């Protein structure tokens, strides 16, 4: 299973190598995508209906913003858009699909910006989303199923998740209240950060690097893309990796895919 913020699906699809070539080569059975920023009518056939894949595309009502999607090898049993909060129903930030005994969600949590309405929006989203995660875990586990929320959470949880953490203590994505909130997802709601569970002592592995300067070349990155799942699925995670491009010129997004292999 993979998750990746494509930073605009149209642009990522036009690059060579790009999203299309990556998707055709991946061994993942499910791919969660964020920041698609496109309607289905704006995308080529090999993106909106690639051979061998079922695609659930959820654009934002605000054109050119946000947008999430799920690509799966098998057709979903059910699809749910949003998490019941009226303000974010048309935001293109959350979708769930049922695939057998596992519900897979693609999440694009707002990025925020300190001292602006964007940060206020992010905080409202978090305030509404945590109770949903608590409730949803009870529901799926009560059905004998599991849930994994893949996506761009836009928060680096600990100092190990951000190379330049000292210089970003007052930056959106590493604010104390954001980090505390993500900690509650793990400690109170009982979800598992799969990559960190498999790599407990590693700095990173980072999944986002700014296009500015030499951030990618120096690996001055952030780990903000997660696969967060219920414990029953977490124990089946065998390996996790960030598919970091070999060089700057081979990047097709400012994020890299985060891929986890789970036992069947």
From TrEMBL:
SUPFAM superfamilies (UniProt xref): DNase I-like
Domain Endonuclease/exonuclease/phosphatase: 3-255
Cofactor annotation: Mg(2+)
Pfam families: Exo_endo_phos
Entry annotated with the keyword S-adenosyl-L-methionine: no
Annotated PROSITE patterns: AP_NUCLEASE_F1_4 (PS51435)
Highest rank taxon of the organism: Bacteria
PANTHER family: EXODEOXYRIBONUCLEASE III
NCBIfam families with a match to the protein in the record: exoDNase_III (TIGR00195), xth (TIGR00633)
Entry protein name: Exodeoxyribonuclease III
């Amino acid at each position: 299973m993979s998750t990746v913020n494509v930073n605009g699906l149209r642009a990522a699809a036009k690059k060579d190598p790009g999203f299309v070539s990556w998707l055709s080569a991946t061994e993942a059975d499910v791919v969660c995508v964020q920041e698609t920023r496109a309607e289905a009518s704006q995308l080529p056939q090999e993106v909106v209906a690639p051979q061998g894949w079922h695609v659930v595309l959820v654009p934002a009502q605000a054109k050119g913003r946000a947008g999430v999607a799920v690509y799966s090898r098998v057709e979903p049993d059910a699809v749910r858009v949003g998490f019941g909060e009226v303000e974010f129903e048309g935001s293109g930030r959350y979708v769930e699909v049922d695939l057998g005994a596992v519900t897979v969600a693609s999440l694009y949590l707002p990025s925020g910006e300190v001292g602006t309405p964007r940060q206020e929006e992010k905080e409202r989203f978090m305030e509404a989303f945590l109770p949903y995660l608590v409730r949803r875990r009870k529901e799926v586990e009560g059905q004998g199923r599991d849930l994994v929320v893949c996506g761009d959470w836009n928060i680096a949880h600990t100092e190990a998740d951000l190379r330049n953490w000292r210089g970003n203590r007052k930056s959106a994505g590493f604010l104390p209240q954001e980090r505390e909130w993500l900690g509650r997802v793990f400690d109170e709601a009982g979800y598992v950060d799969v990559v960190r569970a498999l790599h407990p002592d590693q700095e990173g592995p980072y999944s986002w690097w700014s296009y500015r300067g030499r951030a990618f070349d120096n690996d001055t990155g952030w780990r903000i893309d997660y696969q967060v799942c219920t414990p029953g699925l977490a124990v089946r995670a065998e390996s996790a990796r960030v598919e970091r491009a070999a060089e700057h010129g081979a990047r097709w997004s400012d994020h890299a895919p985060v891929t986890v292999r789970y036992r069947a």
